[in-house]
Amino acid sequence: MLSNIYILDGGAYSGGGEAMFQLGCDLISRGYKVSIIDARRDPAVRPPQKFDKYFEYGLTYCSQEDVVDSPSNAVIVPESATEYLFNYKRVKPIIYWLSYENYDGRYSWNEAETYFNRVIQGMRRNVFKMLHFMKNVIRYGKARYPLQNAVNLSGSNYTNMKLANEGAPFLPLFHSIGVDFINAGMCTSKENRKDVILYNPAKPSRLTRKLVKRGKYAYVSIQSMTVDQMIELFRQA
């Protein structure tokens, strides 16, 4: 059994960032000692108030210097920060794949509306990415952190396929579900159902924008809502 598990907090507190904290609580409930690595670039950035409940389970912050680089310990990072694992030589490296699109080791193209803007903005982004990879080669001897060296926890079938294409072994892991949604229970009633489609504007795509703009169906965005408001919305859709 691992002595200590460290989970990276890079200062992102969207759904993916929250899933990292949920994973920490799940591990604590299974008897592991878990700490959150404070790697926020801006000290003024703090977790939202709703994150307070996770610390009640026993999560604590530690500095990057507090991490003990030992084979009996593990460091968990999201797919958007795999390069952070270059900092350690002996710990068990674990990558929690909340998506594949945010993988820091891939080139990506901009989601701009026009083809011209996608090419221009995408090329600019990928040139900087290429220069960054070259810097990694100079510093670490590798452009990307080798996925084959890590335990890859995959949260979707899409990510499973991508990791398989990379030749990286993976373990399927479903995202934790907030206890508030579990306590709310199932709703099988159809009385208050509406003919609407829910979507997350924080995860934009050209296809989503086209469908919403087409206006063939009624779309409702999920944003700036409390847990209770989201539960009520889900029960109507």
Question: What attributes does this structure have?
Answer:
about 240 residues, Rossmann fold, 3 domains, seven-stranded parallel beta sheet, two-stranded parallel ribbon, about 15% strand, globular, UDP-galactopyranose mutase
Describe this structure in words.
This is UDP-galactopyranose mutase. It comes from Bifidobacterium pseudolongum subsp. globosum. The structure is a single chain. The protein is α/β, with parallel strands linked by helices and 237 residues long. It has three domains: 129 residues, Rossmann fold (3-Layer(aba) Sandwich), CATH 3.40.50; 38 residues; 55 residues, no CATH class. It is 32% helix and 17% strand. It contains seven helices and nine strands; from the N terminus they run βαβαβββαβαβαβαβα. The protein has a seven-stranded parallel beta sheet with strand order 3-2-1-4-5-6-7, sandwiched between helices. A two-stranded parallel sheet has the order 8-9. The longest helix has 26 residues. The radius of gyration is 20 Å and the shape is globular.
